[in-house]
Specification:
19 helices, 0% strand, mainly alpha, 64% helix, 447 residues
């Protein structure tokens, strides 16, 4: 009998508490599953402000729910968040109060299955991915030079978001080429291909999170639960089939290679290469590289990164020309966008300003540079590079004027395996503020 089991058997109060916490864990898990299922089932009823226009992919769910309006969505999101917070709070009370590893894995798999069989949620980004792929494969048009408007007669164009119809792709050449084999499958086939890629990337990210947490001395079930049952991760990230999940998979692969012992040159080179490949999917993950290099103070990560960058740049240039590797131009273009959910916009409103001005962009960029330099200095002095990377990604999302829910997911897998637990608190706090901001329509009186 284990020490924990002996303690429970000799302590009636602890046994009673364990039964209550077991029941509460089950209740919170059911709440998350029910709320997620409610969103997915109602989303299958048709296009609304929360469910983007899309081809029919979840016909087997039609007739089970009602149209998913914003109020229903927000209530379900709030319920899923409450269940998620409840599970995390109970996990802090001790091993006897936590969900078992098997139950944790089961909950995460159920949530993934529910979202996978449903329609695309919240965002139209996945249709932009498909449009860029079809531009290159079906129409012979460089997606780094033109937006989807040049293929307005293609069947995917009707589903592309209005904001992106004239915008060339901002994603890396590796991701664009990865999406190309899906283009000949048609819109529906490509959509399912994107959903499969997102699902596999998510499961891979969670598996690596489990492994990294165990290697760093943390409870892997709690760490994986904090990521895999997170409502923003499940509903926004996986529900939208975002390529951020592929980027995060490569990010966690880099962390796994870097922390695995013994620290051989091959593994460290592979870690540097994984970060660069991730950046050639979505550039944000490149923020990890300086912290890894400063932490290791060895040549291997640099050589791996340079080698991967050389190969990736050559492939990108051969496939798309210089535009395919001009990441800086794409980042500068996207950095000028402003969303209503960004912290910068809300702070501007607090000071009575109508929005974000050009000088605000400059100040935000300067602030981000100072934060990154400070983190680099701390990493040089021995601070955990995984934590520094997570703080950098969190700072990027908070200082961005174009903030989307899946952006504040970036630091979460790093936070649950970092040695600075304040990072996890800060990441969850930012996510909580984002969710609270979404709830404002529930406070408007009905007329």
């Amino acid at each position: 009998m284990s020490v924990a089991a002996q303690s429970l058997s000799t302590d009636p109060a602890r046994t009673r508490d364990a039964r209550w916490t077991s029941a509460l864990n089950a209740l919170f898990a059911v709440l998350i599953v029910a709320a997620t299922a409610e969103i997915v089932i109602d989303a299958s009823a048709g296009h609304t402000g929360v469910v983007p226009k899309q081809p029919a992919t979840a016909g087997w769910l039609s007739g089970l729910g009602v149209l998913l309006n914003y109020q229903i969505f927000l209530v379900a999101l709030l319920a899923a968040t409450a269940g998620y917070v409840g599970l995390l709070v109970l996990s802090r009370r001790g091993r006897w109060a936590r969900m078992s590893p098997r139950s944790t894995i089961g909950l995460i798999l159920v949530l993934h299955a529910i979202v996978f069989v449903g329609p695309i949620l919240i965002s139209t980004d996945v249709f932009s991915y498909i449009a860029y792929a079809r531009m290159g494969v079906e129409h012979g048009i460089n997606p780094y030079l033109h937006g989807p408007s040049v293929i307005s007669r293609d069947p995917v164009f009707a589903y592309v978001g209005h904001d992106w119809r004239r915008v060339a792709t901002a994603y890396g050449p590796i991701y664009t080429l990865l999406s190309y084999p899906l283009a000949p499958l048609g819109v529906v086939g490509a959509l399912w291909g994107m959903k499969v890629m997102a699902l596999l990337a998510s499961l891979g990210t969670l598996a690596l999170t489990w492994w990294c947490a165990r290697r760093r001395g943390f409870d892997p079930a709690i760490a994986t639960l904090a990521v895999g049952a997170n409502p923003l991760y499940v509903i926004y990230g996986l529900g939208g089939a975002h390529n951020d999940l592929i980027m995060m998979l490569l990010m966690m692969l880099a962390v796994a290679l870097s922390i695995r012992e013994p620290h051989t040159s091959g593994r460290e080179a592979g870690a540097g290469a994984a970060i660069v490949v991730g950046a050639l999917v979505k550039a944000t993950v490149a923020a990890l590289l300086p912290f890894m290099i400063l932490s290791r103070r060895r040549l291997a990560p640099v050589l791996g990164a340079v080698g991967a960058l050389a190969v990736g740049a050559l492939v990108g240039w051969a496939a798309f020309g210089v535009q395919g590797i001009n990441v800086v131009a794409a980042l500068n273009r996207d950095a000028a966008f402003v969303s209503t959910d960004s912290f910068a916009t809300e702070i501007a409103h607090l000071f009575g300003k109508p929005g974000v001005f050009p000088v605000d962009h400059i100040l935000l960029k300067a602030g981000l540079v100072l934060i990154v330099l400070h983190l680099m200095w701390r990493t040089w002095r021995g601070y955990d590079w995984v934590a520094a990377s997570g703080w950098a990604l969190l700072a990027i999302s908070v200082t961005s004027t174009w903030l989307l829910a899946w952006y504040i997911l970036w630091p979460l897998p790093l936070a649950v395996v970092s040695r600075d637990r304040r990072l996890l608190v800060a990441t969850l706090a930012v996510q909580g503020l984002f969710i609270a901001h979404q709830m404002s329509p529930l406070l408007v009186p009905v007329r």
